[in-house]
């Protein structure tokens, strides 16, 4: 039991790291989550939230340093919520992420620790993000873009984000300078006007820019100057005037200049991206992950990908099956994916819009599904999707996960039908606590 300092403060020692990169210690058997505290470090903390099953603390004074602690390269690390692991040696980050996957699969699926392979490191430890989505605020009469302070809705203005591609950062600063030159205002929920968010994507020397605004007209002079930025091939406005909306984009788009698609190379594939399309933020690592996933699948007749987005994985697997069907719930992404199939002369690859579980059942009534690839959101596979997999019973399932906990729970639900053949974690986002994992499941004989 940890020593109590007073009613306001206590000493706690971190025993391990949590899924958000926070230190986890214990008081009277209750877990206490403390940001910026590494395993083995003891700190005097203030309890800022106490619940029946857990508590949260804030460091007043760190009493010792872990030998794995390093000075963060970023001056606002710890205040910004973006890179909680920048204080941890890179090799230790990889080990920590492997342990997160191991513990989740032990806890939920009873999988042996040794089944999880070492984490595949990212080719780029910094400068790997090809997109930013930064809220805009007004400070001292100037517009600033930045990231949210940990645990708040306050914006920390960012001079330079080290995990953004350097070209993306240069463009962000140039655009923010122009927005201030034309004296634009930040979003005002009372009038539902002004700038809300700056969204930028940079790939292969070309930029895509979206200004998310309220009910505002953008000055023609601003648009003309933005059009002159070298490499800017797509300039869009998204009008999202609903002050209660938690969605980044509304359905109201306005093309201000250029094309509404951004061409991008992914391995041997040529893809076109709409502004709203999801694309992996760390492209070099995404290529490694997709290539590994492809190498695990045996050639077959019919392959189905659930949650297929703009089709990158399905098209990367185009040589693995005679027929490939991707399922995605967002029509715009489906349209984008079918464009990409045509672009890559993949006539045997097609994409349909609908619920993944229902569409997979429909497909299975017409043909036998040999392999399934799933790349679900952090919530994992829902009950309907698990049931659909149990009914279709493909010989192989490749599960690409971004959440070890939901991965473990889903494997547990499939264990009686499938054997876990391999577990390969990937460090898609260095300096954060996120880890992607490929799992190959093979149907029991």
Write up what this structure looks like.
It is a single chain. The protein is an alpha/beta fold and 445 residues long. The protein has three domains: 54 residues, Nucleic acid-binding proteins (OB fold (Dihydrolipoamide Acetyltransferase, E2P), Beta Barrel), CATH 2.40.50.140; 190 residues, Vaccinia Virus protein VP39 (Rossmann fold, 3-Layer(aba) Sandwich), CATH 3.40.50.150; 136 residues, Beta Barrel (OB fold (Dihydrolipoamide Acetyltransferase, E2P)), CATH 2.40.50. The chain is built from nine helices and 22 strands. Strand 7 and strand 8 form a beta hairpin. It starts with 8 loop residues before the first strand and ends with a strand. The N terminus is likely disordered. Its EC number is 2.1.1.190. It comes from Holdemania massiliensis. InterPro entries: MeTrfase_TrmA_AS, NA-bd_OB-fold, SAM-dependent_MTases_sf, TRAM_dom, U5_MeTrfase_fam.
Our count of domains comes out at: 3
Q: What would the CATH topology of the largest domain be?
A: Rossmann fold
Q: So what's the overall shape?
A: globular
What's the helix count? 9
Identify the quaternary structure here: single chain
What is the beta-strand fraction? Answer: 25-35%
Strand sequence of the main sheet, in spatial order?
A: 9-8-7-10-11-12-13
Say how many strands there are. Answer: 22
Distance between the termini: 49 Å
